[in-house]
């Protein structure tokens, strides 16, 4: 799946729907965020489904299916750089703050935050081309939404 996505993005294969590639990459990035602490909690999975449903106007079944695609892509994608690169190249800068907020809401969904999640979020901020200030704002918005 990952090789197919990269081939479509790099132009070596037919490019049927770039929006679907962004969706799958976002789903995979959200899954990676949830799994980074080695615990893929039901609350995190439900939050991912909710984010995907709201962002893309999907019903619960379609959001869960997209999360499933994200799980597959996340397992196949070697590193976080490849996942964020697709998003950074295809999503305008002004929309990436919402992606960071979504990542924070997944990281905070299980109500347990540790150093691996903090490190992942610092990496994601840099790879998405966002600033520490944008990171702080996204974290505050995600926390307020969960409270």
Question: Quick gist of this model?
Answer:
The chain is an all-alpha fold. It contains eight helices and no strands.
List the helices and strands and how they pair.
Layout lengths: L1 H9 L7 H18 L6 H15 L3 H17 L3 H11 L2 H17 L5 H13 L4 H15 L1
Helix pairs in contact: 2-3, 2-4, 2-5, 2-6, 3-4, 3-6, 6-7, 6-8
How would you describe this protein?
- This protein is 78% helix and 0% strand.
- The chain is mainly alpha-helical and 147 residues long.
- The chain has a single domain (18-146), classed as TerB-like (Orthogonal Bundle), CATH 1.10.3680.
- Helix 2 packs across helix 4 and helix 3 crosses helix 4 (60-76).
- The termini are far apart.
| Average pLDDT number | 88
CATH superfamily: TerB-like
CATH architecture: Orthogonal Bundle
User: What integer value in Å does the Rg equal?
Assistant: 14 Å
The share of residues in extended strands comes to: under 5%
Name the poorly predicted regions: none
Estimate the helix proportion, in percent.
Answer: over 70%
Please provide the count of β strands: 0
Name of the CATH first level: Mainly Alpha
């Amino acid at each position: 799946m990952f090789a197919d996505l990269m081939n479509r993005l790099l132009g070596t294969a037919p490019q049927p729907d770039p929006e679907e590639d962004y969706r799958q990459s976002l789903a995979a990035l959200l899954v990676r965020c949830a799994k980074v602490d080695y615990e893929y909690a039901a609350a995190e999975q439900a939050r991912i489904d909710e984010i995907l449903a709201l962002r893309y106007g999907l019903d619960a079944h379609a959001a869960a299916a997209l999360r499933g695609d994200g799980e597959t892509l996340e397992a196949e994608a070697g590193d976080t750089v490849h996942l964020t690169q697709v998003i950074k190249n295809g999503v305008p800068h002004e929309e990436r703050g919402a992606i960071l907020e979504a990542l924070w809401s997944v990281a905070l969904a299980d109500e347990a935050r540790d150093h691996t999640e903090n490190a992942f979020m610092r990496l994601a901020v840099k790879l998405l081309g966002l600033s520490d200030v944008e990171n702080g704002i996204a974290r505050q918005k995600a926390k307020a939404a969960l409270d």
